[in-house]
């Protein structure tokens, strides 16, 4: 937040004129005038999206999710709630899965972002995308990119030995079990209810015992 | 094509493509994030700007004034539309409340204004500067308090058969129990969204809507423009479950905003607004009375339900299945409707049955226990093969008994123990069963099918795919009929320029829309045969060729041809009761100390006519089972009875099942073809899976704990003080 000082707004001023106008330009503290016509505060940001460097100038209020969808037209990343409650906007940032609606784009200067479009294409599907098709791990398709990004990340997290809430022993390596996958995937809501099939798809990709997952 | 006699053998019966578990043809687009949903069409209508909806902060009353000064002066703002400057607006008969309020407010978060700005951030910021001065009125928000004033709905009179009161009074074994279900939300993953663009007086909406032709008509009615001036495009829909059956505020406000701004407008309802701005499944209060002889045969069955809605609204038809599901010579079903000033109640997946069976199938479990009968056997004893109130009317197919018996065998039902007696470590374990029942409605549906020069078959119909698998079963139907592989078929859906289909609702879409495609393909086959000088009656379409009387020609020889037809259903749907059936089996664990409830196993055995694509049909059923488990265990819109709104209006407050809540689910489809239903011999399956499953969960909880909780959802706080004593 290096630019805060440039904006030179007191906390009292923010409260007095409202959050929107506070973003605009310096105003004397306690100013009561309606917000003047002015351009929004923008910042330059560079992202490495799916291996390509993207130099952007964005409204500082714009989320990473909206930069992907509205500025870059990478609409595979979905907006289901815009509040970090549904997981439809899951992408990888710096190798870790995040809800892209919960961070501002300008917080990701220089970050490597991988979206569903970066995992595979209709012509060249990622193994997880292919497994979702094979196991019918989706219905309406709206949560699907987020589910797939999470599913890829979950298998990597288990492989990396990162424990979860259901891992019995913190010192032992977590295994690809139904319980581990379900727990770690629980931030990705699927209202169509494809959960059972999603776990089958993940088990397939992980080379896990699907019969064991089903038990 | 009129469908008025039982279907004979037809090309669908070949089952080369139909009936095979088939990957969805839209799968590569959906899994790669390249299927474009409504808000994502940056490829159309250049110059799009953003709309943001302002919702009412009161539930009932009047707008004294709206001050737009600050909002209009905010950066990037292009236009603001309120009811005061929207011009005259109509209201479709399918909308209970107005989609743009003012000066009167009918419910909380009813839309008051749309702010249009260059960017989303600007529109949102400016919307927060709209100052509304309200005169709060007195509203009615408490269903229980409203019950005494509830009235019989005009078009849903009480139904009586025999002498219910007399037979119930005389019954040897009786149950008289009351159940409640709460308001529930569709909570589909894609928020309602629309891009609107005007060209002169013609409007195009890229939107998310289950019923294209309704959307055309209702948009036209609302905006006061001719129906032919409205073009609706909705090829991908991120879930609906009934919540996108109707034209909603997103469509109307995008259109009004676009007209005012002179630019195409894209607009989505924010997640926190959806729960109170749009529709929901209304809460019910239900009373069930069942009277039996010692033999377990039902002699009297009565089901009453109370629900509420805005003035001019409709009841939740929770008693409907009780008219048909079980035998019994003396019957009563009745509904009462209160006026409530909560947001609009309307259809959600299996409206009526989903709530009604949560009570009825709970009551059947209680009654079986009173009789000392196995709950499976009690249902079997009371099976009926005819409409109980019109015994001349048989069910076209009814395999409920087989669903239950096969399910019991497969699930290991015989191992079920006495209530509260089975332990697995700290978990009390129980099994529950319930019948699934949902009618098979059939609807007029049209399609256009084209043979291209290169042999590709193109199907066009305004049918929608809301996750149901319409693209694939329609493609399979055309492939089967035209004798080509599925990958030679292109399916185009969800555009009002295409022939009008049944649309997606009431689990009628799959059977009806494929029957429409069947009809169009019959016509195209005739045109091709004639073009090739073959006899349309005997020509065989297979392997990309047409064969007749020793002659064989490639389809492509016929050149480009197009045919269009409509399937229309007639008296068969009245002479026979067409319904779908299932048996739900659920095992739960209830933590002996905390009351935490975990679903351990779920099985549904379904009989729903020919299953066109077992892969996507199974997904429909498991998805509905998931939603039903949510209804049983967690879903409840909490009503603020002082201020009149649903408090938990987002996806953190309104809890729906997540991965960790749902075990592996099993579905078995019984072999069934129903020649009464359509040439496809299929029936609906999209809603069957949610019917009864909630009661199966509740019955399993009883079997695990010995506790009956008749108020859904069954959360652990309702168990805690009644859990079996720890030894």
Detailed description of the structure:
The complex is a heterodimer of chains A (215) and B (727). Helices cover 35% and strands 13% of the residues of chain A. With 215 residues, chain A is α+β, with helices and mostly antiparallel strands. Chain A folds into three domains: 1-39, no CATH class; 42-119, Beta-grasp domain (Ubiquitin-like (UB roll), Roll); 127-214, [2Fe-2S]-binding domain (DNA polymerase, domain 1). In chain A, strands 2-1-5-3-4 form a five-stranded mixed sheet, with helices on both faces. In chain A, 52% of the residues are buried. Chain B is of the alpha+beta class and 727 residues long. Chain B has three domains: 2-35 and 443-574, Aldehyde oxidase/xanthine dehydrogenase, molybdopterin binding domain (Aldehyde Oxidoreductase, domain 4, 2-Layer Sandwich); 40-138 and 191-277, Aldehyde Oxidoreductase, domain 4 (2-Layer Sandwich), CATH 3.30.365; 385-440 and 578-722, Aldehyde oxidase/xanthine dehydrogenase, molybdopterin binding domain (Aldehyde Oxidoreductase, domain 4). A seven-stranded mixed sheet of chain B has the order 4-6-2-13-10-11-12. In chain B, strands 1-27-21-22-23 form a five-stranded mixed sheet, covered by helices on one side. Chain B has a five-stranded mixed sheet with strand order 8-16-15-14-9, sandwiched between helices. In chain B, helix 9 crosses helix 10 (375-381) and helix 9 runs parallel beside helix 16 (693-705). The longest helix of chain B is centred in the C-terminal third of the chain and has 23 residues, at 509-531. The termini of chain B are far apart. The mean pLDDT of chain B is 97.
């Amino acid at each position: 937040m290096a630019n805060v000082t440039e904006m030179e707004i007191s906390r009292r001023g923010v409260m007095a004129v409202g959050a929107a106008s506070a973003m605009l330009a310096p105003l004397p503290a306690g100013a009561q005038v309606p917000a003047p016509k002015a351009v929004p505060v923008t910042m330059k940001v560079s992202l490495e999206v799916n291996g390509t460097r993207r130099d952007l100038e964005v409204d500082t209020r714009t989320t990473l999710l909206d930069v992907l969808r509205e500025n870059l037209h990478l609409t595979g990343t979905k907006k289901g709630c815009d509040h970090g409650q549904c997981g439809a906007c899951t992408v990888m940032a710096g190798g870790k899965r995040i809800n892209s609606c919960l961070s501002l784009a300008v917080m990701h200067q220089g970050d490597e972002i991988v979206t569903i479009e970066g995992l595979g294409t209709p012509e060249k599907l990622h193994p997880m995308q292919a497994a979702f098709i094979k196991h019918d791990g989706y219905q309406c398709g709206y949560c699907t990119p987020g589910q797939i990004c999470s599913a890829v990340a979950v298998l990597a997290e288990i492989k990396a030995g990162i424990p979860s809430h259901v891992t019995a022993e913190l010192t032992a390596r977590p295994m690809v079990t139904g319980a581990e996958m379900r727990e770690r995937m629980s931030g990705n809501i699927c209202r169509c209810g494809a959960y059972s099939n999603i776990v089958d798809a993940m088990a397939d990709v992980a080379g896990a015992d699907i019969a064991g997952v089903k038990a | 094509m009129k469908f008025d006699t039982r279907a004979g053998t037809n090309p669908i019966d070949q089952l080369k493509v139909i009936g095979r578990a088939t990957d969805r043809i839209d799968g590569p687009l959906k899994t790669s994030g390249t299927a474009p949903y409504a808000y994502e069409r940056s490829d159309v209508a250049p110059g799009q700007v953003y709309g943001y909806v302002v919702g009412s902060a009161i539930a009932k009353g009047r707008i004294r004034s709206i001050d737009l000064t600050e909002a209009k002066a905010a950066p990037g703002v292009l236009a603001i539309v309120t009811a005061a400057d929207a011009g005259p607006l109509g209201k479709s008969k399918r909308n209970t409340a107005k989609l743009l309020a003012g000066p009167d407010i009918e419910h909380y978060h009813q839309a008051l204004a749309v702010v249009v700005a260059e960017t989303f951030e600007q529109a949102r910021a400016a919307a927060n500067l709209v100052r509304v001065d309200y005169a709060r009125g007195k509203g009615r928000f408490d269903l229980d308090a409203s019950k005494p004033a509830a009235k019989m709905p005009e078009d849903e009179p009480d139904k009586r058969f025999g002498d219910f009161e007399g037979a119930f009074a005389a019954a040897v074994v009786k149950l008289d129990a009351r159940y409640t279900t709460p308001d529930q939300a569709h909570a589909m993953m894609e928020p309602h969204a629309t891009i609107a663009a005007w060209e002169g007086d013609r409007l195009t909406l890229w939107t998310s809507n289950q019923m294209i032709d309704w959307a055309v008509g209702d948009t036209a009615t609302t905006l006061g423009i001719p129906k032919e001036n409205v073009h609706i495009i909705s090829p991908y829909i991120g879930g609906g479950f009934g919540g996108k059956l109707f034209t909603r505020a997103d469509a109307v406000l995008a259109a009004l905003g676009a007209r005012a701004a002179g630019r195409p407008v894209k607009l989505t309802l924010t997640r926190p607004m959806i729960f109170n701005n749009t529709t929901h499944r209304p809460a019910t209060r239900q009373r069930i009375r069942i009277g039996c002889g010692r033999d377990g045969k039902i002699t009297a069955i009565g089901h009453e339900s109370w629900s509420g809605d805005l003035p001019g609204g409709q009841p939740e038809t929770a008693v409907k299945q009780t008219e048909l599901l079980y035998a019994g010579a003396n019957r009563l079903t009745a509904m009462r409707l209160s006026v409530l000033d909560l947001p609009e109640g309307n259809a959600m997946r299996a409206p009526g049955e989903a709530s009604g069976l949560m009570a009825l199938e709970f009551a059947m479990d209680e009654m079986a226990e009173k009789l000392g009968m196995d709950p499976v056997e009690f249902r079997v004893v009371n099976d009926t093969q005819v409409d109980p109130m019109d015994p001349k009317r048989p069910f076209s197919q009814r395999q409920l008994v087989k669903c239950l018996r096969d399910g019991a065998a497969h699930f290991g039902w015989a191992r079920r123990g006495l209530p509260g007696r089975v332990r697995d470590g700290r978990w009390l374990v129980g099994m529950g069963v319930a019948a699934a029942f949902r009618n098979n409605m059939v609807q007029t549906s049209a399609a256009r099918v084209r043979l291209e020069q290169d042999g590709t078959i193109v199907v066009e119909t305004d049918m929608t795919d809301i996750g149901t698998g319409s693209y694939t079963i329609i493609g399979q139907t055309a492939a089967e009929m035209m004798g080509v592989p599925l990958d030679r078929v292109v399916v185009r859906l969800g555009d009002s320029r295409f022939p009008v289909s049944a649309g997606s609702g009431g689990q009628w879409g799959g059977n009806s829309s494929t029957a429409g495609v069947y009809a169009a393909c019959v016509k195209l086959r005739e045109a091709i045969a004639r073009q090739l000088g073959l006899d349309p009656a005997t020509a065989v379409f297979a392997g990309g060729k047409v064969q007749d009387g020793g002659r064989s020609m490639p389809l492509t020889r016929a050149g480009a041809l197009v045919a269009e037809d409509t399937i229309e259903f007639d008296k068969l749907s009245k002479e026979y009761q067409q319904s779908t059936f299932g048996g739900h089996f659920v095992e739960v664990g209830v933590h002996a100390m905390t009351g935490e409830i975990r679903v351990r196993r779920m099985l549904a055995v379904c009989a729903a006519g020919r299953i066109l694509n077992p892969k996507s049909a199974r997904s429909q059923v498991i998805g509905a089972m998931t939603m039903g488990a949510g209804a049983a265990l967690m879903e409840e819109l909490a009503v603020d009875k002082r201020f009149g709104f649903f408090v938990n209006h987002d996806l953190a407050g309104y809890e729906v099942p997540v991965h960790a809540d749902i075990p592996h689910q099993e579905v078995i489809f019984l072999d069934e073809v129903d020649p009464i239903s359509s040439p496809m011999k299929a029936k609906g399956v999209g809603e069957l899976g949610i019917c009864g499953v909630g009661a199966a969960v509740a019955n399993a909880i009883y079997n695990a704990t010995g506790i009956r909780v008749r108020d859904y959802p069954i959360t652990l706080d309702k168990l805690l003080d009644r859990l079996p004593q720890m030894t």
